[in-house]
Specification:
The complex is a heterodimer of chains A (about 270) and B (about 70). By secondary structure, chain A is of the alpha/beta class. Helix content of chain A is about 40%, strand content about 20%. Chain A has eleven helices and ten strands. In chain A, the strands form two sheets. An eight-stranded mixed β-sheet of chain A has the order 5-4-3-6-7-8-9-10, with helices on both faces. In chain A, strand 3, helix 5 and strand 4 form a beta-alpha-beta unit. Chain A is globular, with a radius of gyration of 19 Å. By secondary structure, chain B is mostly beta strands. In chain B, strands 2-1-5-3-4 form a five-stranded mixed β-sheet, with no helix packed on it. Chain B starts with a strand and ends in a 5-residue tail after the last strand. The chains are: A alpha/beta (about 270), B mainly beta (about 70). Chains A and B meet through helix 5, strand 7, strand 8, helix 10 and strand 9 of A and strand 3 and strand 5 of B.
């Protein structure tokens, strides 16, 4: 029995259950990512994605599987971003962070747990994603993003997501993305407040956002960050990321969405 | 002269969201920043009539000034 015959026999409509996906892996000696590629390419859908189906076609699901996204920072924003990319079905993820989990991360960072205190955030990301969606290939890099090693760390990616915690690294990241000619989805948070923008190579969005920056931290240094602000901003970043990858919808290009959750103000500002 | 001053995010705390305020001529954007005791090192986007502006720029009667703080956490 070949793969197509197997799929035709096992599928319920176009859906293939996880148990059947596992059998396909064993029978044909595929890894999970290859199994998912075979299923999607044949026009079937792993059952885990059935609720994606009304907005993401099977072809687009395959497109997501074949996409490669780097998430720089695996903390407040990064934890939610990684979780959502994996559940969405983005097939290749690079998770970059130099830090380990500490107690003060527990109030907001999705990947942080008491058990993982002292564990590298990038490694926790890899572990978490393997539990959610083993079809996703994760490259975890336990190191700080730097301009010098940036191109090597990111490699060939379709998209980079900014989840770092300081402005200097954001400039370095934007510069590296421009050099690599890849789009960058920017997000930043502080207290009740946050912002999101999508930056294409050649755009000077970061220069506009941080034009008055003189080396210090933003308002987050005084306000801290609660549990909900990173979840909101990360979700908006993943919505932007999915539109970039699938080439649909209106992006926050040459504009920034400034969000105030205390007053529930959402302002789109031209950049 | 009358200037509409809009403050955003944490700059609203203890101040206001939007006010039409009276200023003498000449007044620079930086004068409004100092009058409102906004920390200069935390100033992010400044828009004068929806166009990006610098603190040394002068204001004119009827201008709309919007000031956002720097947000840089992750």
């Amino acid at each position: 029995m070949d793969v197509n015959a197997f799929l035709a026999e096992k599928a319920d409509g176009v859906l293939l259950s996880w148990a059947d996906q596992c059998e396909l892996m064993t029978r044909f000696d595929f890894d999970c990512a290859e199994t998912e590629r075979q299923i999607l390419q044949a026009g079937y859908l792993p059952a885990r994605y059935q609720r994606n189906q009304q907005m993401i076609s099977t072809d687009q699901q395959l497109q997501l599987l074949q996409s490669r996204v780097a998430v720089v920072g695996c903390g407040g924003l990064g934890g939610y971003i990684l979780e959502q990319l994996a559940r969405l079905g983005v097939g290749q993820i690079i998770a970059i962070d130099p830090d380990v989990f500490e107690e003060h991360n527990l109030n907001r960072q999705l990947l942080a747990s008491i058990e993982l205190l002292g564990t590298a955030k990038a490694e926790a990301a890899r572990q978490r994603i393997s539990e959610i969606n083993p079809a996703v290939r994760v490259n975890s890099i336990i190191a700080a993003f730097s301009k010098e090693k940036g191109q090597e760390m990111l490699g060939t990616v379709d998209l980079v997501i900014d989840a770092v915690d300081n402005i200097q690294v954001r400039f370095d990241l934007a510069e590296t993305c421009a050099q690599l000619n890849v789009p960058l989805v920017h997000g930043a948070i502080g207290g009740w407040y946050g912002q999101v923008a999508t930056v294409y190579p050649g755009d000077d969005a970061l220069q506009k956002l941080y034009g008055n920056w003189n080396g210090g931290a933003g308002v987050e240094s005084e306000l801290g960050n609660p549990s909900f602000t990173p979840a909101v901003i990360a979700s908006l970043q993943v919505a932007e990321a999915s539109k970039v990858l699938l080439g649909q919808g209106r992006l926050l290009c040459n504009s920034v969405l400034s969000i105030n959750l205390l007053e529930m103000q959402f302002e789109e500002i031209p950049l | 002269m009358k200037i509409t001053v809009k403050l955003f995010a944490s700059f609203q705390a203890g101040r206001f969201n939007v006010e039409i305020r009276e200023y003498p001529e000449p007044t620079l954007i930086g004068d409004v920043v100092r009058e409102q005791d906004l920390p200069e090192e935390k100033i992010g986007i400044v828009l004068l009539n929806m166009v990006h502006a610098k603190l040394y720029q002068p204001l004119r009667d009827g201008d709309i000034l919007a000031i956002f703080p720097l947000v840089g956490g992750g």
